[in-house]
Write a structure and sequence with these properties.
Transmembrane segments: 59-79, 150-171
Pathway: Lipid metabolism; Phospholipid metabolism; phosphatidylglycerol biosynthesis; phosphatidylglycerol from CDP-diacylglycerol: step 1/2
Structural class: mainly alpha
Shape: globular
Order of helices and strands: HHHHHHH
Number of strands: 0
Region (Disordered): 182-203
Subcellular location: Membrane
Helix content: over 70%
Number of domains: 2
Family: Belongs to the CDP-alcohol phosphatidyltransferase class-I family.
């Protein structure tokens, strides 16, 4: 277990802690945990690239940690009344749609490699910004109500557009997918096996 993977696991462990802090109305502490989680995400990415500590485990754990953290924060803030329900439903539904589409493609023997789209990256940045601003407002009282309102609508719009973009990419993949051709038999070996053997027979 290297340092980047340890930091990733720490973010996963921080998920239930964040839920408890938000439910307990410890918003300043929740904001600080969120900031530390973001810093650890940047740190593990830098260390993995800088020192070549990329692992298959890390490739799976890192997006799981990021998504678990964001989705959990949105659901918890939504249940606590700090985010509109429609936005929480949109965020969660988008992720379910993507996962379901990938699984369906595999079940239909048309595997798809999901690559982050530009609008998806913008959506992720917007989701992170909104979560951070809401927690900062609740924990520090900075008077960011207008910014929160703007980010809610920006995030909602990007989330819906991102879902449609992935769905359209999935439809194109399913329509154009062609399975890899089966390997052809080696004709030289086949002819060699059928050719008569030369040589002197012992009598």
């Amino acid at each position: 277990m290297n340092i980047p993977n340890t930091l990733t696991l720490a973010r996963i462990i921080a998920v239930p802690l964040l839920v408890w802090l938000i439910i307990d109305q410890e918003m300043f502490a929740a904001f600080m945990v969120f900031v530390l989680a973001g810093l650890s995400d940047a740190a593990d990415g830098y260390l993995a690239k800088r020192y070549g500590w990329n692992t298959e485990l890390g490739a799976y754990l890192d997006p799981i940690a990021d998504k678990a953290l964001l989705v959990t924060i949105y659901v918890t803030l939504g249940l606590a009344g700090h985010l509109p329900v429609w936005l929480v439903i949109a965020v969660v539904s988008r992720d379910i749609l993507i996962v379901g589409a990938v699984l369906l493609a595999w079940m239909m023997s048309r595997p798809i490699n999901v690559k982050p789209l530009l609008i998806s990256k913008a959506n992720t940045c917007s989701q992170i910004a909104l979560a951070g601003v809401v927690l900062a407002e609740l924990g520090l009282g900075l008077g960011l109500d207008t910014l929160v309102w703007v980010l809610i609508w920006v995030t909602g719009t990007l989330t819906i557009l991102s879902a449609f973009a992935y769905f359209w990419a999935w439809l194109r993949h399913m329509a154009r997918y062609e399975p890899a051709p089966a390997p052809r038999p080696n004709r030289r070996k086949a002819r060699g096996a059928d050719a008569p053997r030369s040589g002197v027979r012992a009598s």
